[in-house]
Design a protein that fits this description.
Blueprint lengths: L6 H29 L3 H27 L10 H14 L6 H32 L3 H45 L1 H33 L1
Helix pairs in contact: 1-2, 1-3, 1-4, 2-5, 3-4, 4-5, 5-6
């Protein structure tokens, strides 16, 4: 573990953490894209994969600006987010909309983690007057925000609605008006049958008395 003795060292350590995170994402995003069924979602993930690969290059340029070797250190946060996403996406789904909604949720957790990490690194780079590093990281931060907004748009316009419609369909037999109307009809039928049986019984008793 490196000794953090200055803000410069802290920034380098932050970038190494992000560098590892981005490297992991170049392997994780294709899996999410393959699992997605919505065309817009699949396209958005593939486009962001290309951006992520470019973001790795920018980080290498940032390391050069800081005169530090371009190497990562295990990013426990991103590792956990990816593992959690893989677990959820790998579950059995009754509907494609539910799977796509899960993929978007996993992808947005990634984006929010990255936005926080890049925002912190940018603030520290500004304090160090590292304008070149700030410019590189701001480009990436803007892409992360755009990717998150795109995922939200896809979720709200299509995917979440599909998932919700599936929920409505599955619950309708239990809670729909038709099922509530059927119950009284069934009870009336039973009552009518009991009444007819009672009348037959009384007639039979009357005849036997005669």
């Amino acid at each position: 573990m490196a000794t953090v003795d200055s803000l410069h060292t802290l920034l380098v350590e932050e970038l190494r953490d992000i560098y590892d995170a981005e490297k992991r994402l170049t392997k994780a995003i294709p899996k999410m894209a393959k699992a997605a069924t919505n065309d817009d979602l699949r396209t958005a993930l593939k486009e962001h994969l290309a951006e992520t690969e470019q973001q790795v290059v920018r980080l290498e340029e940032a390391f050069e600006e800081l005169e530090a070797p371009a190497k990562g250190k295990p990013c426990a946060g991103m590792k956990g987010i990816i593992e959690e996403g893989d677990e959820h996406v790998g579950e059995d789904f009754d509907d494609d909309g539910l799977r796509d909604a899960t993929i978007i949720g996993a992808a947005q957790r990634v984006e929010h983690y990255e936005m926080a990490a890049y925002g912190t690194a940018i603030a520290h780079a500004r304090l160090l007057d590292q304008s070149g590093v700030v410019k590189l990281l701001e480009q990436t931060l803007a892409e992360e925000k755009q990717a998150d907004e795109k995922l939200t748009e896809i979720a709200e316009s299509v995917v979440n609605l599909d998932a919700a419609s599936q929920e409505d369909e599955s619950s309708m037999p239990r809670t729909g008006p038709s099922s509530r109307r059927q119950a009284p009809t069934s009870l009336r039928s039973q009552a009518a049958s009991s009444s007819r049986a009672g009348k037959r019984s009384r007639k039979s008793t009357s005849r036997s008395r005669r």
